[in-house]
Each structure stands twice: as structure tokens, then as C-alpha cells.
């Protein structure tokens, strides 16, 4: 597979994906799941591409009463403890971004006694 760095519409989209805050990987897939471009943690990751493609295909087979075909999803988010995948459809392509999530913080609250005067 050869990539040319001429500034085509596809190049602009790829550059836009690279600028997403906390992005650590991305995929651009065809409707049938073939990898068009990729980078970061998802560079040439056919396994993730197949999983995402299957998930997108599954959404079209979900109960049409609950999820009407004329009202398709805008975004699918898959969240893990330290990262997430965001999947969007646009112009007959599947865009996948893997983002690093900030570490979860827990607040420790000490109970204080209240004294009425």
C-alpha cells in the first residue's frame, strides 16, 4: 500500500484526526471494513478494524422499532478504564479514533463534627 502526501481531501481528514486532543491512534475504513489509512496505536490494526466494522454492521441489524433505519447513529463510544474508541460514519467511510482518558481521581472526604452554639 502506498500513500502519497499530496493535500487531498483524505489527507486533510487524516491530519484533522492527528490533531484530536489525547488521540493515540486512528483508522479510516471503507464501508466494508478495509483500512484506508491508519496511525498511532491503530496503525495497520486489521483486528480492531474487523471488530469495529462488525459492530457498525450489527447496528444496522438491531431492532428497527427501537433504532429506526432512517435515524442512524451519529457516534459509537467504547470506553475502557484508560482509553476509549470513538466511531463515526461520514461520506461512506468509518472513522475510528482511540483516545487516552485522564486517570480517574477519587476524592477522600473526611467527616467533620458540627457543633451548634
From TrEMBL:
Check the record and name the Gene3D superfamilies matching this protein. Answer: Dynein light chain 2a, cytoplasmic (3.30.450.30)
| Coiled coil region boundaries | none
**An example Gene Ontology molecular-function term:** guanyl-nucleotide exchange factor activity
Provide the family line.
Belongs to the LAMTOR4 family.
**Biological processes, Gene Ontology terms:** cellular response to amino acid stimulus; positive regulation of TOR signaling
Task: Establish whether keyword Zinc is in the entry.
Answer: no
Origin species: Atta cephalotes (Leafcutter ant)
Predominant cellular place of this UniProt entry's protein? other
UniProt xrefs under InterPro entries: LAMTOR4
Transcription regulation: is it a keyword of this entry?
no
- Which protein, by its recorded name, is this? Late endosomal/lysosomal adaptor and MAPK and MTOR activator 4
GO cellular-component term (any): lysosome
Q: Which controlled-vocabulary keywords does the entry list?
A: Lysosome
Quote the subcellular location field of this record: Lysosome
Per its UniProt record, what SUPFAM superfamilies does this chain match?
Roadblock/LC7 domain
Amino acid at each position: 500500500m502506498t500513500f502519497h502526501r499530496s493535500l487531498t481531501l483524505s489527507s486533510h481528514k487524516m491530519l484533522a484526526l492527528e490533531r484530536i486532543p489525547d488521540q493515540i491512534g486512528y483508522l479510516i475504513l471503507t464501508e466494508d471494513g478495509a483500512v484506508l489509512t491508519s496511525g498511532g496505536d491503530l496503525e495497520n490494526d486489521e483486528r480492531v478494524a474487523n471488530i469495529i466494522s462488525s459492530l457498525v454492521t450489527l447496528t444496522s441489524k438491531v431492532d428497527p422499532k427501537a433504532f429506526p433505519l432512517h435515524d442512524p447513529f451519529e457516534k459509537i463510544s467504547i470506553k475502557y478504564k484508560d482509553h476509549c474508541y470513538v466511531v463515526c460514519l461520514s461520506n461512506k467511510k468509518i472513522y475510528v479514533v482511540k483516545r487516552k482518558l485522564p486517570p480517574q481521581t477519587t476524592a477522600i472526604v473526611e467527616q467533620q463534627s458540627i457543633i451548634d452554639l
